[in-house]
Amino acid sequence: MKKIILSVAMIAAVAAIAIGATTAYFSDTETSTGNTFSAGTIDIAIDGQNPWTENYQIGDLKPGETGYINFDIRNVGQNPVNVSKNVGSFVESTGTVSEPECTEQSGYWTNPNGGCNWNWDSQNHTDLNNVQTQIIYDLSVKVYAAGNENTPIWWQSIYTDAEGKTLFMVYPYNTTYVALGMIPVGGHMKVTQSYHFKSTAGNEYQGDKLSFDITIKGEQMPQGDNGITTVALENKTGASNWDIIQGDNIEGTLSYKAQGPKFDYNFTGKVKTTGNYTLLYVGSTNDYPATGSVVLGTNAFTAGTPGFLSGQVVTNSITNGKIWLIPSSSYNNSVMTSWPEADILFETGLINYVQN
To answer: Which of 11, 157, 257, 293 has CB atoms 3.0–4.6 Å from 243's, for a disulfide?
Structure first.
């Protein structure tokens, strides 16, 4: 009897499974078709050339004189691009040997046909070839938005003659790149460089020749994990050229996500004067602070000590604009009530954020 009952139970269980397998329920299925993923482009052209094939010759430069190499970088890609510059692969050569150069370096100038005898007294004198230590370097940039070829939206001087930085000091290695800033989509950057031969350069440099490469690198803005990009803030002076004050340890770094539902940022920096400071997005026009300026955060900073700010701000108005760290007392209701330039940290490149 127990076996019969067990068999009936098993049959009932199997029947229940069969019935469950054929039972219909209300349902709905939706399918999105034709979805694509496309990689964007990062591309720059220089003086209309892509690739860049131009070379530059600065000839017959004498102490106290200045040669210029200027060019225009255009963003022909689909995304904002950070650009940086290297001058490297220095190759020094004697070039044309003259009697003053020879005797200045203890060589013996032979007559009547000329020529320098460097070993005339068995001391094996040598010709000095290091012109890159005698060239003072000047570098400045101006950025223009797409469709506006006449009025720059941003500019700065990175090095000036007054700073006395030589080519060798600025570019000691082939891997040394100097950040020039960000170029918006369709915009362009005018780069001005001057090469000033020191007035104190002596006869040992007569006829010497220096050849070098100029490399421009364009990179997408997010350069770290999770789409995080950075921009340096520096103390700058002089609205006409915004010269970066370098080496004073008054500076900062803003890290932010270039895309996201909120402007997610972290800032660390050192200020000149103790007080409360406000991190401010000041807009994207030349009338600063402009309509659309955004207060990102406020905190107390101590002079010479690293200070910090971080947060997430809901905004969709940060486009091709500037970030400043300003004394909080100098700003009220979208208006700068005072202009303590020495206590402001200015951006060294435009920033761009896309809300999604």
So the answer is: 157
